Amino acid sequence: MADATQTNAGASGRAPDDASGQAQDSGATGPVLAADGTPLKASLNRALRAQKLRALALIAPLLIFVLVTFIAPIVDMLFRSVENQIVSETLPRTVAELSDWEATSNTLPDDATFDALYYDLFLASEYKNHTRLGSRLNYEQTGMSSMFRRVGRDVGDFGDLYLDQFEDLDERWDEAEPWAALMAHPGYLEDAAEWRESRDADRIDPRDTPAPRFRLAPGIEDLLPKTAQAYTHYAAFMRTEEEETADEDEPWTLVSTMLYEDLMAASAADIAAYDGPMADALQTAHAAAPDFETMTRKAQFLEADDEWGNLDNWATIKVYSPSYTSGYFLTAVDMKLGADGIVSQPEDQQIYGLLFKRTLFMSMVITISCILLGYPVAWLLANLPMRSANLLMILVLLPFWTSLLVRTSAWKVMLQQQGVINDVLVWLGVVADESRLIMINNQFGTIVAMTHILLPFMILPLYSVMQTIQPSYLRAAKSLGATPFTAFWRVYFPQSVPGIGAGSILVFILAIGYYITPEIVGGTSGTFISNRIAYHISSSLNWGLAAALGTILLGAVLILYWAYDRIVGIDNVKLGG
Amino acid sequence: MAYDQSTDAFVAFERVQKSYDGETLVVKDLNLAMPKGEFLTMLGPSGSGKTTCLMMLAGFETATHGEILLDGKPINNIPPHKRGIGMVFQNYALFPHMTVAENLSFPLEVRKIGKSDREAKIKRALDMVQMGAFGGRRPAQLSGGQQQRIALARALVFEPELVLMDEPLGALDKQLRETLQFEITRLAHELGITVVYVTHDQTEALTMSDRVAVFDDGRIQQLAPPDELYESPQNSFVAQFIGENNTLEGVVKNITDGLAHVQLDSGDIIDCKPVNVSKPGERTKVSIRPERVEYNKDRLSPDAHTLKAEVLEFIYMGDIFRTRLRVAGNDDFVVKTRNAPDQVRLKPGQQIEIGWLPEDCRALDA
Ligand SMILES: Nc1ncnc2c1ncn2[C@@H]1O[C@H](COP(=O)(O)OP(=O)(O)O)[C@@H](O)[C@H]1O
Ligand SMILES: [Mg+2]
């Protein structure tokens, strides 16, 4: 019918009082120029720029506040969901050695890899990093946490084998000062002595003035390269962690182990040519080394924990060795990175998909319940006389003034099997005493409690939209012959849709991330994804997975928002008149 | 026409009362009968109960007492949507989420009228208000005057016999108001519909209506055609409310042969037509229209009573002169004279004598 009226447009033309501005659209084409000849647009922009800058300066404090306290944590969360530097930072040498090992080869990594692992883990256990790494890898492969914990205890003793044999040759191999004399630069030893003296006299605080930086003795690096490296690590550890100098304690067994390896590799001529401190001990050791009792590192690891012989564990270490990983996201969607690509989690470990679906479904049910319950209340609020409307408004707002915990707990009292509602039903004879309804610690309880808690977020926007709908529309509809229902459905309701939209978005987005209420009344079947996120943040400490779940949730909300915009149109959302 | 016979009246209010709060009567004893095809205007100051009367007729308010008849049948118990009364609201009340054509289609759809019929009726209604080109627009895309035209078309599209309009032009500027006043009367006469029109603008009431009901304080003060209302107001409220009016207060001396002598508070005696005074001694307000006052002695009859007056102000208004006088202690006595070649132009401070025909000077209630 619009067509019929439109075709006859030309003839009847504009109504006499058509004041709307169709007037000047047929004027000159081309850009309009300002008085000074510049294009009008450009000079308008210039005029507006100063205004915009001033406005920006006004909101700058808030903007910065929001950026720092809100955007930055979200960015950090997004980052954490892919960040995975802990493996390559804790086991740098192992990761490098593993690069040309394939889990599909069905053989354990070579001895060089175990040597690297020994070195890495020795350092990690001294710095106490190995348990963190263990927990990280345990998310991907259960059992790895204890594997690291156990070997962390033992790895310090692996080198005793060599240390004991060196000691048997010369007591000095188990003493701090001879080692320092061999490894350290004389200048360092002087500086160290001076620093110790000041420290012992309480002239300096070792926290403010750390021990002097370690320097190797000249030439020792060429003669005993691995020993020099290990001793340097030891010295750095002493300086930063123990706040002592290197010559205050005998070095790690790692250093003895490296010494054995260096001696095995060094030529007799080089050793003979050395004439610094401990030259005699070195020569004796060099001569004796080939006859030392030895053990491969692989054997030592397997002796500490035979899990080190498990190919799956090695595959996990390799898969998670890059600095960034999709592993958390895959876990969040019930998949995992296996040695040969992405695979589904075993059936019994698929929980996140279910939780996401349940969260979305229950949020939708809660939103719909809120619409059904909130709409009549909002209508009353908007149509009652002022006094009663104010009273009703207080009742609507009352929940806001009560602690969330109290409200939720009240539902527990109401809904539990020995609770008020069941008691009443039994008393009325509606249900038998032995078949009391189960209304809490399941989805029903969560839906009831959350609908109640989120109801005001539906009522308030609905109310403010309904307030702007004049009663004369309904009267007009009725005077035109519409029954009260038709008048409502075709005239009132469409105008209140923006309120429903705004309320639904609010309620849905709040519901999807709700945590406390499902935690208290949800039992096992009524919990949300957010409860799982909270668990990973506070109990399992798997922040990466929590971040990935949170990111997916954020993505889901954004997609829904986008879909809503496409279907209903976001300009149709009104929070107020 | 025999207006007051409620037997053949199309719309009738019989002893209708209305109270919202149970304490005060907003409408007190309303009696009104309208024949079919009449254009009746309810005129009165704001708060006098006009809208309430209209709402009772439309069915949105119920009368506390009395009966409202439509075409001889009581309608007190008929819900609004079954009364078939067209209605135009002051704020237009066009449905904002529908286009103009959908707005017009609405009353036809709820009456289950077929699509092709509907389209024809909508087109006719839009053409009638000269808005044929605007069917596809939304109300928000129209100017106020255009919206009012659409509201009018919507109230007429389902061909009601009775149309109610509550200050439909109240929000429009003067020029637009005049155009639309003319169009509404033209349409009402062309279509032969009965119209109850509410306004607080007396010019509107006088120019548009067959009869005007002047409301005040919940009562009809006078119900009469415009000329009668202006020339023969029945009480001082109507005299004051309609047009410009000069009032002098005094006491009735005597009444003889349809002529009353009134002694003004200043002591002067004047001749008046007794309208609602009946016996000597009664206080009265005497009402004289500014254009019926004469100060050119030649034109007054020799035996007419005259009063002394002092010119306070003389305003040249083009077609007329407006002179403000002090008469019998009243500083706001206004005289309007036509701008004719022989007309005297008075000067402030001048002392003159004024007079009038006894029938133009009406002694009303105090
Ligand atoms: N819905 C209502 N509830 C209570 N009082 C009302 C209502 N509508 C109008 N009134 C009162 O009734 C009186 C008459 O109002 P109304 O009929 O709107 O006058 P008018 O239309 O002549 O300006 C006013 O005093 C007004 O305050
Ligand atoms: Mg009114």
Give an overview in words:
The complex is a heterodimer of chains A (577) and B (366). Chain A has 577 residues and is an all-alpha fold. Chain A has helices at 2-7, 9-12, 40-80, 85-90, 92-98, 111-127, 130-140, 144-154, 160-169, 176-183, 186-200, 220-223, 225-242, 253-265, 268-273, 279-288, 297-304, 311-319, 327-332, 352-383, 386-401, 404-415, 420-428, 443-467, 471-479, 484-512, 516-521, 529-538, 543-567; strands at 335-338, 341-344. Chain A contains 29 helices and 2 strands. Chain A has a two-stranded antiparallel ribbon. Mean pLDDT of chain A is 87; it is low at 1-27. In chain B, helix 2 (100-110) packs across helix 3. Chain B is elongated, with a radius of gyration of 25 Å. The chains are: A mainly alpha (577), B alpha+beta (366). Chains A and B meet through helix 1, helix 2, helix 25 and helix 26 of A and strand 6, helix 2, helix 3, helix 4 and helix 5 of B. The structure holds adenosine-5'-diphosphate and magnesium ion. Chain A: One of its GO terms (biological process) is transmembrane transport. Chain A: Residues 1-10 have a biased composition (Polar residues). Chain A: Belongs to the binding-protein-dependent transport system permease family. CysTW subfamily.
**Helix-strand pattern of chain B:** EEEHEEEHHHEHEHEEHHEEEEEEEEE
Query: What level of helicity do the residues of chain A show?
Result: 55-70%
What is the CATH level 1 assignment of the largest domain in chain A?
A: Mainly Alpha
User: What portion of residues of chain A belong to β-strands?
Assistant: under 5%
Bound molecules: adenosine-5'-diphosphate, magnesium ion
Helix share of residues of chain B?
10-25%
Known CATH architecture of the largest domain in chain A: Orthogonal Bundle
Q: How many helices of chain A?
A: 29
Structural classification of chain B: alpha+beta
User: How are strands sequenced across the largest beta sheet of chain A?
Assistant: 1-2
Average the pLDDT over all residues of chain B and give the rounded result: 90
